[in-house]
Structure formats: C-alpha cells, structure tokens
Amino acid sequence: MEAFRQGLRELGWIEGQNITIEYRWAGGNMDRHPALASELVKLPVDLIVTAGSPAVRAARQASITIPIVVAIMSDPVALGYAASLARPGGNVTGLASLFEELTPKQLQIFKETMPRATRVAMLSYVDSAPSILPATEAAARALGLKARVFRIRDVADLDAAITAAKTERADGVHVLPSPFFNRHRARIAELATKHGLPSISEASEYVQDGGLMSYGPNFPGMYRRAASYVDRILKGAKPGDLPIEQPTKFELVINLKTAKAIGITIPPAILLRADEVIQ
C-alpha cells in the first residue's frame, strides 16, 4: 500500500488533505471480501481500489456502478469484468498480470534450473481465477513434467500438501498466484526448505522470506501505477474508457542461501539472467 500512497502523492493527492482512504483488510480470509466490499459501497465511496481475483469479484458483485481500480488481477476479459483490455467498457479497470501467461514461464525457469525434474507439486488456492490452473497444467505437460495439484483452502492444507509432495517424490513446488499464498509466503518457504523442495512463486517477497526463486512483475510498481487510474477517475474519466495495462518488466529473483540449504546448484545461465540474487 505504501507504493500506492506514494503514487498518489506524486500526483498531488495527499491523504488527510484532499483525499480520504477507507481501509479494509481481509486478513488472509478470502471469505470476508463480500462483507468488506459491501461496507465500502454503503459508506459510500467514490471508487474502490483492490487486488486479487477474490477481492475483485466481491467488489464487482457489490457494485456495477462504482469505479473499481485493480492493482493486480488475472485476465479480466476471461473473468467477465472487461469487454477487452483496450476498452473495458464496465466499471473495472487497472492492471492485469495475465497469470495464465506468467505461470508457464515460471515452470520453464523451474525446468531449466532442475533439468532432471519430472514431477512438480502445484499449490492452487481454491478461490483463484479458474483459468490459471489449466494453463499451468498444460505448460507442465509440454515440458515433460507430471503435475500433482494440491487445492488449498487454509493454512493447515499447506503443511499437508508440502509434506505429501515430499512423500510422493515431487522434484519441486510451484506456488500459483494468490493473495492467500502471498500472505502465507514465509510459511510456504519454510515448509519447502524443510522438506528439501525447490520452489518458485511470482513474488520477490517470497524469495526474501526464504523461497528459492520468483519470477513475476514488480508488484509495488503496479500499485504505484494504479494511483494514476485513481487520479484520472477522480478528475472525471470513466473506468470503462481507460485501457487495462499489463506489466512489461518481469524480475527473476534467486535465493542462494536457500539453494545451499536444500542441496542444489543453480545453473550459471540462470544466475546470469537473475535481476537479484540473495546470498
């Protein structure tokens, strides 16, 4: 959120002076999103800023008229929130990561890092965008990887899934995009390392918390960019007329300390491609 507030300040919006922000947090409980979105609509607010498919869905169900600016979301066209990226047409706009295209690239990096890998465990949150998992499973098959999907509902499922992945001799763990996984990234990293499993996610914070690798957009930058949508909408623009943007820069982050802990060597070619290496 600090990146978002910074983006607002750069555009002249100072919290407490010329803009008021009503904060609502789900605290990792995705079931709270509908009630929180309804609260905001009843206040009312001039627009809603959110991120993640469950939160976007809740906001959209709460109002089809209040502008919704999304900092991070999956394919909004596939989800039915926009007619097209160039002209959304509804009340939802912002930035789309198109995780359906990102996760296959993550698997490719995983395979290049672990060329002998044949099995991969996939952690998929039950409320994630439905198009992400099929795209990722198809990519796994194309790379010669057998995917074992674990559908995660709560924190207890994480322990059970990663333990089972080790028992079933998975060669690594692919953490699919979800706000739930991001909130519990430190626990996932800890479990994967404990069981000696290489892992990859989309958030660099995951690697900073002990995960092996991440490949994805700069999420703070996306929040900062979301502020520009707020600026334009508050100045009269209609959300349906504002094109949905996609990130153009993706970062590969590697934790060599974790690599050493689980006993693997990162190929030099992968290290050379890394934007950040944590020693």
Model description:
With 279 residues, this protein is of the alpha/beta class. It folds into 2 domains: 2-98 and 218-241, Rossmann fold (3-Layer(aba) Sandwich), CATH 3.40.50; 99-217 and 250-278, Response regulator (Rossmann fold, 3-Layer(aba) Sandwich). It contains 12 helices and 10 strands. Helix 9 links the parallel strand 7 (199-201) and strand 8 (213-217). Helix 2 (33-42) crosses helix 3 (53-62) and helix 4 runs parallel beside helix 5. The longest helix has 16 residues, at 219-234. It starts with a helix and ends with a strand.
Distance between the termini: 28 Å
For the largest beta-sheet, the strand count, sense and barrel status come to: 7 strands, mixed
CATH topology heading of the largest domain: Rossmann fold
CATH class of the largest domain: Alpha Beta
Using only C-alpha atoms, the radius of gyration works out to 19 Å
The domain tally reads 2
Strand content: 15-25%
Mean pLDDT: 95
Look at the helices and sheets and give the structural class: alpha/beta
Question: Summarize this, please?
Answer:
This protein has 279 residues and is of the alpha/beta class.
Please outline the helices and strands:
Blueprint: H1 2-10, H2 33-42, E1 48-50, H3 53-62, E2 68-70, E3 92-94, H4 99-113, E4 119-125, H5 132-142, E5 146-152, H6 155-167, E6 173-175, H7 179-183, H8 185-194, E7 199-201, H9 204-208, E8 213-217, H10 219-234, E9 250-255, H11 256-262, H12 268-273, E10 276-278
Parallel strand pairs: 1-2, 2-3, 4-5, 4-6, 6-7, 7-8, 9-10
Antiparallel strand pairs: 8-9
